[in-house]
Design brief:
Length: about 325
């Protein structure tokens, strides 16, 4: 059959291609691309139908509709065989790349959901990264050695945003969120301490009421961090607004700045003792940081995510290393 350019309007049953968005064209053509690649590979409609296990009539109609929608001939017909036209060869090259990407994507998501070797996207606070999270992963991987982790270390609000965006499966955060669309469970808590320089006027004390620090300069985390919100709330409860000398992004940096004499800070216990500072118990109010795990409400878990979630919930009350847990 001699090849001829088709004169009909492209995509005529839904409108001219020039008036359609890329998404609309993709939705129209995508279901037929694998059929097209199969016919192009075999150059025989009957053989392609047998290989793909679809009726020959279905395949023939799909190819005719594809050519109709594109407005060009993709095949030259020679009896029972077909060959690609120049337009067909151009189209096939892109179709094969697209189908290859789909295949790789399917393999990737199947691998991530594999119960034995799948992947968990897990977020956690900076202060959880030194000991808490490594200890958790070590304990979990003792029974699930092949499960992989994609780890994100950030402050609480940023992790919740990534959770809502579907970039994380689970996150350890503080305070424990109470927000629409999220499920959160309290796992543990840390008693916060007032950290002062070793030569500070309060350094000889063991305990202190936070109201006694109303005239002090504070070094704190930046707004948006859970620990900053807790610090502001505790100071407000004690009757004052803290005077901020420095805002940082990492708790151990704040400890170093306290040692340098820039101010005092409310911080969770350190992984290891820090020279140059003294840590005082805060009395008169409940100065704690609650740690919880959060996930999207109604979001289906893959087997590896379900296993790690179950593991985290089983650690309720013993999530944190012994030296960092409640006294």
């Amino acid at each position: 059959m001699e090849h001829q350019h088709r004169s009909r309007s492209p995509l005529s049953h839904t409108g001219d291609a020039r008036d359609m968005s890329g998404d609309e064209i993709v939705r129209l053509l995508a279901p037929r691309l694998a059929y097209f690649a199969g016919v192009a590979r075999t150059e025989h409609v009957t053989r392609a139908a047998q290989e793909m296990q679809v009726p020959q009539s279905t395949l023939s109609r799909a190819m005719a509709r594809l050519e109709h929608d594109l407005g060009v001939d993709l095949f030259a017909r020679h009896g029972r065989t077909v060959s690609l036209t120049p337009a067909g060869r151009t189209f096939l090259a892109s179709v094969e790349r697209a189908l290859g990407e789909v295949e790789k994507a399917a393999e990737s998501v199947r691998a991530d959901a594999d119960p034995e070797s799948g992947k968990v996207a897990f977020g956690f606070l900076h202060t959880m990264g030194t000991e808490t999270v490594p200890a958790l992963l070590r304990a979990f991987r003792a029974d699930h050695p092949r499960i992989r982790f994609s780890l994100v270390q950030n402050y609480g609000e940023a992790m919740l945003e990534r959770l809502r965006a579907g970039e994380l499966d689970l996150c350890l955060t503080s305070p424990v969120p109470d927000a629409p669309g999220l499920v959160a469970r309290r796992l543990d808590e840390q008693r916060l301490r007032l950290v002062v320089p070793e030569d500070h006027r309060l350094a000889a004390r063991k305990r202190i009421r936070l109201a006694e620090t109303a005239d002090e300069s504070f070094v704190t985390l930046e707004p948006g961090y859970g620990l900053r919100r807790i610090t502001d709330d505790l100071c407000a409860e004690a009757g004052f607004t803290p005077r901020i000398a420095f805002e940082g992004e990492e708790a151990e940096t704040l400890r170093g700045l306290v040692a340098a004499g820039l101010g005092v800070a409310l911080l969770p216990p350190p992984a290891v003792p820090r020279p140059g500072v003294v840590e005082l118990a805060v009395t008169g109010q409940r100065a704690v940081r609650e740690i919880g795990v959060a996930w999207l409400d109604g979001h289906p878990d893959t087997p590896p995510v379900a296993a790690f979630k179950k593991f985290l919930l089983s650690r309720r009350g013993r999530l944190l290393p012994e030296q960092a847990s409640m006294e």
